[in-house]
Amino acid sequence: MSLTDQLTLIAAQGRSDFSGRTDKYMVGSKNPTDIGDLSDAMIGVAPFDIAGTMFDQDFRDRAIQRLNRYRRHWDFYDGKHWINPWYDGERKSVFNFCKTITDKSVQWFVAQGWEVKAPAGNESVADLLNAVWKRNKRISLTTQAAQYGAVTGDAFFYVTVTDRDFRNRELPRKEWKARIQALNPSNVFPVWSPVEPGVMIGCLIQQVAYHGQQKIVMSIYIDPEEFEVWENGKSQGRFPNKLGEIPVVHVPNFVLSYSAFGMSDIESIIELNEEYNSVANSIRRSINYHSEPTTLIYGAKASRLEKGANKVWSGLPIDARVENLVLGDDLKATYQYLEMLEGLIMKTGEVPKLAYDSHEVAVSNTSGLTMQMMFQPLIEKTKKRRPQYDEGFQAVNRLVLKIERDIIGTNIGVLADNEEELMTTTTQFSSPLPKDEQVELDQGIKKIQEGIWSQNEGIRRLAKVVDEDQLKLEIMADQRMKVAMEAEKQKALELVTPNLTFPFLGSIALTQEFEDIAAKSLKEEEKAVKSME
User: Fold this and answer.
1) Which of 93, 183, 260, 431 is deepest in the core (most CB within 10 A)?
2) How far is it, in rounded angstroms, from Cα 276 to Cα 223?
3) SS3 345
4) Is residue 44 part of a domain?
């Protein structure tokens, strides 16, 4: 199995299953000889030091603490909120706000996707990177990474090259492709620089995998010089790291100033969600208890009363009375407490109730500013998340360009007019708020008419096409056809036979020759304008 396939196998695994959170795996054990064994890694509760000298007990303790935190967060995301989910033969109530808040936050962050942008003159570099992200399913990949980050607090991207087919046969170099993967944070154990916080000097990727029926622990340790692969603690060989750096990018969900790792979306709402479920379960038990009323008999024996449908009890002693046990309190205060808890959960999770329950709110004619105010908590939350992912995407882009240049052999230098900023990119995120395209178009036309925008800027902002140069050529061709049409109309009015071939001057009949000439002319004109600036 090739190195690429081994890493792909690790990245493709689902969430690690933790099967025994006991005191053995809690932080606090300081036995210097307790470095763990392969069985700990096999059940996913702790990393295994494959080399024996890779990390110390403190590193292992911190990793165990992180893995336990991840597992707890995944439990709450999956709706496993009770240690014992059953009581007296009935399943306890679960209201899963953790999943609701996480999914809505991820949805807002991903929105309609994002694009890579490059400095002026390097647009072709951005085109290359966008093509790589598109081939790697940008939106689904971003959603996966963002979900990892929102639940655990950390997301990891791994950048490699696909050089073999599904049968493990080496592909021709011209068919090699840069590949971007989102790694499960439970499988990644970064070694941070002691002098540069957040900078990796090594990275262990460890995951349970299967070879046929055999269960193995696949481990890969990466440093700037080489990769080393182990199966069940046995080295399978070393491979040179041609990039000269670790191709793993860490993205903290929300920054914690005291830690290299991030904070999740549900960290602060777990206890509130637990309290909500506890109160809701108590209400449910009370309602269920009183939904099948218990009959109370005073001053008589139940054995003397005939039971059954349509039976009337009579002849009871004078002091006897029969009544059903009823719920004496309407639980109003309890319901108010639940509403307060829900409000606290939404406030703490920064997701307004409107985001998932808008049936009582009319938004059909709501202005953009009003919509921003209504969804302000989610907007602010999305803004807090974007800088980390922007930096992460930039790091991934730089690794992709190095793989294209140093491994695949692409001459990326010819794509950049501005070679000093060849590796410089930015991220253009889309807005999660709905847009009224007619309003945007009207505003854009007004800006062009008032001289605030050029027609070219209007095309960039409003056209939303992939090939802007092609669009410009087509617009100019249509304008040329309109001028020719007016000229031929004038000829007809003057009783001169018009040339009826003018429709072929429009964008529908553009020839490749005209496109080449016009494109060359357009680029020369743009360069001339830039030189004047």
Assistant:
1) 183
2) 46
3) helix
4) yes
What is the C-alpha to C-alpha distance for residues 227 and 524, in angstroms, rounded to an integer? 47
Contacts with 211 (C-beta within 8 Å, 6 or more apart), sequence order: none
Locate tokens 């790792």: which residue? 261
Give the pLDDT score at 28: 34
Domain residues for 73?
Answer: 3-78+154-252
For the chain, the domain total comes to: 1
Q: What is the 3-state secondary structure (H, E, C) of 379-448?
A: HHHHHHHHHHHHHHHHHHHHHHHHHHHHHHCCCHHHHCCCHHHCCCCEEEECCCCCCCHHHHHHHHHHHH
Structure tokens at 410: 């692409």
Helix (H) or strand (E) holding 183: strand 177-183
What SS3 state is found at 188? strand
pLDDT digits (tens, 9 = 90+) for 144-159: 999 999 999 999 999 9
Pick the closest to residue 104 from 397, 346, 460 (CA basis).
346
pLDDT for the residue 14 = 42
CA distances from 158 to 8, 141, 230, 389 (A): 10, 11, 18, 14
Per-residue pLDDT tens over the stretch 180-224: 999 999 999 999 988 887 899 999 999 888 777 788 888 999 999
Average pLDDT, rounded, for the chain:
80
Residue 88 lies in a domain: no
Confirm whether 209 is domain-assigned. Answer: yes
431 Cβ neighbours under 8 A, 6+ residues apart: 111, 112
pTM of the model: 0.74
Assign 3-state DSSP to the chain and report helix, strand, coil percentages, each to 5. Answer: 50, 15, 35
Q: Is 463 part of any domain?
A: no
394, 159 in Cβ contact below 8 A? no
